[in-house]
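User:
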Amino acid sequence: MLRITLVLTMAWAAAQAQTAMRPIVLHAARLLDVETGRMIAPAEILVVGERISEAGTLVTHPGGAGIIDLGDRTLLPGLIDAHIHLFLHPGAEDLQTVQESVAQRTLIAVLAARDDLMAGFTAERDMGTEGAGSADTAVRNAIDQGLFPGPRLRVSGNAIDILGGHEDAIGYNSEQRVLPNATQANNTAELVAAIRQQLKEGADFIKIYETGKDSMIAGRFLTPFQFTAEEMRAAVLEAARVGKRVAVHATGEPGTFYAAQAGVVSIDHAFQLSDATMKLMRDKQIFAVPTFTIFEYFADHAATPAEGAQNRQMLSYHAQEFRKQVAAGVPVAMGSDVGPFPHGTQAREFVLMVQYGMTPLAAIQAGTVNGAKLLGWEGQIGALKAGYLADVVAVAGNPLEDIAALQKVSFVMKGGAVHRRP
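Assistant: Predicted structure:
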């Protein structure tokens, strides 16, 4: 069985390498210039090796080039999800992190990466393994080495929390010493040490849980901060010392303000942002990553009617606040929090971003050019331009007219290798 698996893996890698070596011309009815919103029709892309050589109405057709005619479809850059959890799957999240071994969860993560790629997500940011340590480093490296299909990944390792915080093992028999789903740090020295350890183990960025547990009381959203303003500044400075950045799970004030003031790269979830926080985020170009889909999923799959009603109230509040954030000019990157809901279905986030106040073009930009900036790949991915990596997807119809088209990606190319075609 092991020999069969190895042979199949090697055959897959060889096929991808052969495809990437041959020039390919993609032809389709349309191409969306995501930076300007201009729709080019008809459209072609010349791919040489792993990069785009030309893109426009008509491109050079080198001798021996492969021609892929995608018909009445729109070509777009590969989609980018800035908030995922490869090591989670639907079901009781707290139990799966306790009952499943790291080895089992890593195998599940490899399959999740494949599912996301086949759905058109060619780059992603994994926001914590939730108790699997730095296993995401191995998944990232295996994908980069061509051992398995999957998106380009930025990984954070285990993420960082406080004792009794958002990811601690609360509600278990304390005598059993159930481990938390994040690395704990309770002061500046411990925080710096945790950051250094995670970077040592291969993290591309640092993820910190800055708020939680959330509650709605008499219509008011409340969430305690976890790290002080001084601790957040220390974390950002320590990461910056070696050229890395910090992203935070932060749903509301004052934690969101502390994070923006410190200079994090993104505030994920961002239910509640004060005027002062929004100004800081606009001025510093700190991204809000809304993650609507996870809260819709929790509302639809709640254990009790009361829990479902509470989740819907949270989602409604978030949508209301998001409209204010968009109006204030806060930069937005698409992030779904996929994992607790099925991998490969997270394009639903685009639909919800439009439903809650963004234009279709702005939502697509959030999941392409903005995602590239947030992940540190600006100028490499996120647009269909000469010199960029050939991360290309195609959808039927025009996503500027029907954003839900992004939920039905029918063609996927990553780095010049075709992974899915009609």
